Every structure is written in C-alpha cells, then in structure tokens.
Structure prediction request, 405 residues.
Amino acid sequence: MAISLNSPCSLYSPTKSHLGFFNNQRQLAVFYNKRSSSSSISSKQRGCLVITCSAGDSQTIVIGLAADSGCGKSTFMRRLTSVFGGAAEPPKGGNPDSNTLISDTTTVICLDDYHSLDRTGRKEKGVTALDPRANNFDLMYEQVKAMKDGVSVEKPIYNHVTGLLDPPELIKPPKILVIEGLHPMYDARVRELLDFSIYLDISNEVKFAWKIQRDMTERGHSLESIKASIEARKPDFDAYIDPQKQYADAVIEVLPTQLIPDDNEGKVLRVRLIMKEGVKHFSPVYLFDEGSTIEWIPCGRKLTCSYPGIKFSYGPDAYFGHEVSILEMDGKFDRLDELIYVESHLSNLSTKFYGEVTQQMLKHADFPGSNNGTGLFQTIVGLKIRDLYEQIITSKAAAPVEAKA
Prediction:
C-alpha cells in the first residue's frame, strides 16, 4: 500500500479500501480487505490501518515568554509580531478589555487570564497574582494543549481594569501561539508543550529605576509607595517567577552598565543574550568567531558613540548547568541607521536579507529599548523564532507518515 500525504491526507492502494475519518489526534482510520497467499487461512482478511498525519501548515507552534510585571513583555510582543507581519489587534467584536492580540500569523494570550481568583478574592485570601494558588494551571494546560492540537478553546478573560473574571472568548488555533506572563514555564505540563521559551530577566536595580521613572513621573506615586510595592512582590517573585529562567531556551538579562561607575539611573544598560546550546531548530548567534571569547569596542568612524560608548562581548559559558553562548552589549546607539555595521559582524541571525535587523530596529525606533541591547536582542530573538517556526513546519511536512496496522 502506497501512501501520500497532502492536505487533507490522501491514500492510494492497489486494493479497494474503505476510509474512516480523522479523530482529534489527526489520525485517519483505514479499513480494508487484504488478500492472502496462504492456503491455511481464508482468501481475504479484514484489517485496520491507522495513519497519523502530519499537521503541515496547520500545526500550531507554542512560544512561552516569562517575566515579571513591567519588564517589557508587551514591547517584545510587538517586536515579535512585527517580524511575522500584520498588526496585532484584540479579537474583532469581542470584549474591549481582552488581553489577547491576534495578527495574521500569531496569537498572543496573556496568562493572567488563567487567574483563578479575582482581585478581591486574592485580597481576601492574602495571596498575590504571582502565587500559584491564584492561578488555574489545569485549565491553562488543557487549553494550550488543545490549541497546539488544532482545537479552538473558550479562554477566560481577566479584566485588568475591573479586577474581575469576565466571560470567556473564543480563540482559534493560530500558526504561532505565544503565551506570555508570569508562569509559562512554572507548570511542567505546560512547559513540555513549548517549542521555544524566553525569559526576560531584569535586575532589581534596573527594575527599580524603571518603576520609579514610570510610577513617579507618569503616575505620581511616591518613592516610598514604589519601594513598598516592590518589596511586597519580591518573596513571591523569588519563589515562583525567577526560578523559571533555568528552563528558558533564551534569556535576555538586563543589568546596570559597567561603563559608568556607580550608575543608578538605568538610562545606560548592559544587556546579555543567554542562548542555550543544543536546542532543536535553534542556533545561537555569535560575534566574529563561533565559540571564541571576544570583546569588541566598535565606536569610531563607522559607529557614532557618545559617552560612555558601546562595548560588545561574546563567549561560551554555563547557566544553571547548561552550556550556553552569551552575547552582551553595554551602552547605547546614537544612530540606529549605523546599526548595520554591528549587524554585519554578527552571524546566525536568521535574517532573510542583509540589514533586516537594522530595518526592524528603524521600523520601531520609538519602542522602548530601541537604542540599546534590549531592543536589539528582542529583535534578534524574534527573527530566530521565525526561523524556528519555518524549520518546524518544514520538518513536519517532510516527516514520513506514521502507519501502524
């Protein structure tokens, strides 16, 4: 029996076969009659062939993005969806307070939607949203798995305006599902569903500087209230959120600069892209020579740098017992159009054409972090995710049909 797999599955047989139907595991049951050459049994035998079909382009790839509140997840999502094209917007005609963003290729869901307690309930029980007891991981797992398997779900909505749990919304399985929030890698079952995972690791010093800038300047909060808010979250963050970075395939770590002694303003940043080795469909980016240890100060005629300048470094290292490659940038760009000079010295960027990283950065020059390593590395990771998606789809389409009698 010869089998060819297109969309939908097709089957060719020299004998007559009676086809069954797909189940939700994309298995096709084929019932057939088979002639036997043996005289000891009847001339015909009945059988059933179960064919597991590759999902092809309908396969949903799941990406996990973990970070604390106010650490740049929203900006990263905008950069990522831009790489795939199409504007990311809330579901049309749905709840105006929906947290979901949908584009042509991607759907981004906020894991706050899986809070099991509303704002009042958390206050009554004395738990924060970071505490696993305030979240429904069973439902999170079931719905992420369903979408990965190509099944639509009625996803709950946590309303950040009212603090209440709103009626659910219908989410159809996209090509790429991004689950972002506090706990995408906390539950081992959900973690196993991820095709790639990222952790945004903002140091306490930078987080504090960012929060002061946002809450004091924009929201009129006092310094004391900001400190109290950070300290109140810290035990749960340390216990439940921060440990997830050990599972991430890529970590973007944001630290105070080392170019300015005792800097505490957080305007100049040292950013490290930590890339795990041996991840399927993912090749770490490198500077100049793969596997070498390199420091590079590119400032000069080809790259305009005001004080304190820019410094890059790259090399192998270990991170939570895993072999990693680390690309680091300390400082900020004065002119984004000159980024092409830096881009030309980086390899394994997974760009479609020369200068694509620079083009993406210029396209979103008004995004936070566009003049430093946060924007650069978020853009690079977005391109790597696009490449990973294309590799997975290609490998799925090329995989032989699994058949068992």
In short: The chain is about 25% helix and 30% strand. The radius of gyration is 25 Å. Residues 142 and 263 are 46 Å apart (CA to CA). Residues 1-57 have pLDDT under 50 and may be disordered.
